[in-house]
Amino acid sequence: MGETKSVPTMGVEDSPDAIYDARTLGAPKMAVFGLQHMFAMFGATILVPTLTGLSVSATLLFAGLGTLLFHFASKGKVPAFLGSSFAFIAGYAAIAPNGEADLLPYACLGVACAGLLYLVLAALFRVFGPTRVMRFFPPVVTGPIVISIGLILASSAIENASTNWLVALVAVVIIVAANIWGKGMVKIVPILLGVVGSYAVAAAVGEVDFSGVAEAAWIGLPVAWNDTALSVFGPNFDAGLAITAVITIVPLAFATMIEHIGNVSAISSTCNRNYISEPGLHRTLLGDGLATILAALFGAPANTTYGENTGVLALTRVFDPRVVRIAALFAIALSFCPKFAAVIAAMPSCVIGGVSLVLYGMISAVGIRNLVENRVDFTKSRNVLIAALVLVLSLGIAYSAAGAIVIVVGGISVSLSGLAVGSIAGIALNIALPGHEYVFGEAGGSDAEGPLPLEGNLEDVEEMAARG
């Protein structure tokens, strides 16, 4: 796999406190960093199979395998972890509303077909190049989308934390204290410390039910044939149900692909690397699509690049993709241990909520930084209107009574999330409104005046602006 150092920056020096090659820290510390990334993704990743009826162990296995496949496709340069996608929960619910074991494989078949759309978009990036395609995704669009991702997730963090605010606040305090006042390893593993510390407090106050742990076996296979999408192709194959699943679920991929671009933009901003150009969105989309297809075929949720792990990158400043691959190996190994999966499943929601309060906030903060550092000009009405509509549609629909906009096409109901509607509106307005002069990776244009730094802080940007 490619060396991390070969990835170009966006015209600024590397941050002095960032670590791009974790091998300099030694194998034990790298393992701890990997463990932290694994814990960061656990809460949300395991929540998806819990809500849909899919296997937790299979979810862990294909989160790990999908992450490794993504890294292989992206030349090992992008420090992204792939966990369970929430975007397809509505699709699973439409086909198997109560998690019926005989219907879930058909839903997985629909998700696998949705993964094929990633390959189509990846081909477009490969043929036309990022400059032409990214013209539709300038910072004034992607910034508010990233902000919306964090704010939409925020409600689940509050809901989880509210089950026991004391435990949740313990997680927050540990994370903040470790990151601000910690020294050495303590400073760069705040998430792991927050999870372990708040879990211990939760156990001490009686919030943890360990009965499932005692009953679980130590070793077991994470995948059962009857749970896979491949199992539907038998004597009892229901072609009508398969077609319904495909038609219902495939359109959801449009939203997740836009989210993917926003997430890769956020990772690029966090790591001071232009991953959209190198290794390229065609490679990251290919990796995400292949990982989703693989996971769905074997009965696991669709994969997506995880904002939780982007939050870990922002907090720890350890940007070496090798650390994320270590996290993937941990997930794979632990998928064969039902007892460990039971320990994680026993983690109370208040612990997850406390950690998520910080991580989800970091996602939105990255979106704000993307706007600031790219110097999006909000004295221009077009930029104000685009950002405003992306935010109000994404958040307004997400928190409405319906939670989505339902469109009936040929008797099939297609549900569009707030993030999907907001993203589509932002892209359409950016194209339609006058002043669409943004050129990806170049100075000037309607969204940025001057260089396009992806790393730094507000003071750096103000100083650059003062120098002209």
TrEMBL record:
Keywords tagged on the record: Membrane, Transmembrane, Transmembrane helix, Transport
Tree of life domain: Bacteria
GO cellular component: plasma membrane
Keyword Membrane recorded: yes
Membrane association type: Multi-pass membrane protein
Listed transmembrane segments: 54-73, 80-97, 103-124, 136-158, 164-181, 188-206, 239-258, 323-345, 351-372, 384-408, 414-433
Provenance organism: Rubneribacter badeniensis
GO MF annotation list: xanthine transmembrane transporter activity
Listed InterPro entries: NCS2, Xan_ur_permease
Protein name: ABC transporter permease
Pfam families named in the record: Xan_ur_permease
Higher taxonomy: Bacteria, Bacillati, Actinomycetota, Coriobacteriia, Eggerthellales
Compartment list: Membrane
Family membership: Belongs to the nucleobase:cation symporter-2 (NCS2) (TC 2.A.40) family.
